[in-house]
Design brief:
With 407 residues, this protein is α/β, with parallel strands linked by helices. It has helices at residues 22-25, 43-60, 70-78, 81-94, 104-108, 112-121, 161-173, 216-228, 292-300, 314-322, 343-351, 359-366, and strands at 11-17, 66-69, 143-146, 149-152, 184-185, 198-200, 205-210, 233-238, 252-256, 259-262, 274-280, 283-289, 305-308, 329-332, 335-339, 355-358, 379-383, 400-405. A hairpin with a 4-residue loop joins β6 and β7. α2 (43-60) packs parallel to α12.
């Protein structure tokens, strides 16, 4: 498979997801904040909603398109005893606070399925238990494919550490990633960057949010490596360091090559919060920019339309950003999917020429034929996500695209 992403909105060909399982049922109210959740999730409904979302993806994708479950990829890798030993050693070194060394011998005796269960659910019986890993639902944060390279994220919060080790072992050992194995970008232990802060404008322009989850040093380290990999401009976007805007993609996503859905207070009403990091020979050069919209227009040479999450009403803007109205996922240019509860966002998109279809209408219309490369119709697809939404992540958060095609 051709692992390559040169735009947020090119036709989706392959994506990695995680359909929620028992790990979300292991989150009790007393530890939910520690596990980065604002609420508890009902597993059965969340699983159903997620599977319904995947039907939308499969209807839009070409016949050769693939939806990969991350645990299936990990299980493939764990069939090797050497890989299992390597992963356990990684947990020992990278997660000293978990005291994995005390049960290392027991872990080595586990069959692949049980070891993977331990990694995700945090328990194998007996007296030794870890916290569950319910955030695995948000595969977006684990990595970011940029061009024919892959950025391996490093978690800002301990609650997500095991997830980030999983993607590292998959990228290193799964045959799917063999084509990009020599193009891996990683950062140091004291730094952090998460995939929700990385948006690919084009093969030459990448946005990285400087958020509560992506550190300045992590951003700068990745920017330098992206320049070496052929990216001309990395736009560092300073965003509020708060839970409601934990990543750039919670307040800004692409709907088309030149159209974005944005949370106005954090994007349209902010100035001088963008720094253009561009290649200047041996060193990275920088310049402060007036606004994100103006900078995108300057670098791409075309006008951009910013569509307001929640419409014009400030209360609706805040309410719908809270429920991931700005966290849309593009299936193709001008074809996006998001939570149906964000009614004002979808109404505003209709005003900008998007046809609004619910999940059932879209699947019935496109199942078996996909989105044509010559498609010129703009479509905003809504799906039910009342339980998924409790996890504070939308369609983009729940997807790690690894292949898109311009035709």
């Amino acid at each position: 498979m051709n692992i390559n992403i040169s735009s947020e909105t090119d036709l989706l060909k392959a994506v990695i997801v995680h359909t929620p399982g028992r790990e979300v049922s292991l989150v009790n109210p007393g530890i939910k904040e520690e596990l980065l959740f604002d609420d508890i999730i009902f597993e059965n409904d969340a699983k159903r909603e997620h599977l319904e979302m995947l039907k939308i993806f499969k209807a839009a994708m070409p016949a050769e398109g693939k939806v990969f479950e991350i645990l299936d990829l990990a299980l493939d890798c764990f069939q090797s005893e050497d890989v299992r030993a390597e992963f356990i050693e990684m947990m020992n070194k990278e997660l000293p606070f978990e005291n994995i060394h005390t049960i290392e011998d027991e872990l080595m005796k586990l069959v692949p399925e049980t070891l993977l269960q331990f990694v995700v659910e945090g328990t194998i019986g007996g007296q030794f238990n870890l916290q569950p890993a319910p955030n695995l639902l948000f595969t977006r944060d684990l990595a970011a494919v940029v061009g024919d390279g892959i950025i391996l994220s490093r978690a800002a919060k301990h609650a997500r550490s095991r997830e980030f080790l999983l993607i590292r072992i998959i990228a290193k050992h799964h045959p799917l990633f063999e084509p990009v194995r020599n193009n891996v970008i990683s950062i140091g232990k004291k730094q952090s960057i998460e995939g929700g802060d990385v948006l690919v404008v084009s093969d030459k322009i990448v946005l990285i949010g400087m958020s509560e989850r992506t550190s300045f040093s992590g951003l700068m380290s990745v920017a330098g490596k992206l320049h070496a990999h052929g990216v001309d401009h990395v736009l560092a976007v300073d965003i509020p360091k708060q839970r409601s805007s934990m990543h750039l993609d919670t307040i800004f996503t692409f709907a088309d090559h030149d159209e974005c859905v944005v949370f106005p207070p954090a994007i349209m009403e902010q100035t001088h919060n963008v720094v253009d990091l561009f290649s200047g020979g041996e060193f990275i050069q920088s310049r402060q920019c007036y606004s994100l919209k103006e900078t995108l227009e300057e670098l791409t040479g075309k006008p951009f339309t910013f569509i307001k999450c929640g419409g014009d009403d400030p209360v609706s803007q805040f309410r719908e950003q809270w429920t991931d109205g700005a966290n849309l996922f593009a299936l193709a240019p001008g074809v996006v999917v998001g939570y149906g509860r964000n009614t004002e966002t979808f109404r505003t998109m209709k005003e900008h020429g998007y046809e609004h279809m619910n999940q059932y209408e879209f699947v019935e219309e496109y199942s078996g034929k996909g989105i044509s490369p010559s498609n010129s119709k703009k479509i905003a697809v809504s799906f039910e996500g009342h339980e998924l939404c409790r996890g504070r992540g939308g369609a983009r958060c729940m997807t790690l695209p690894i292949s898109r095609s311009k035709n």
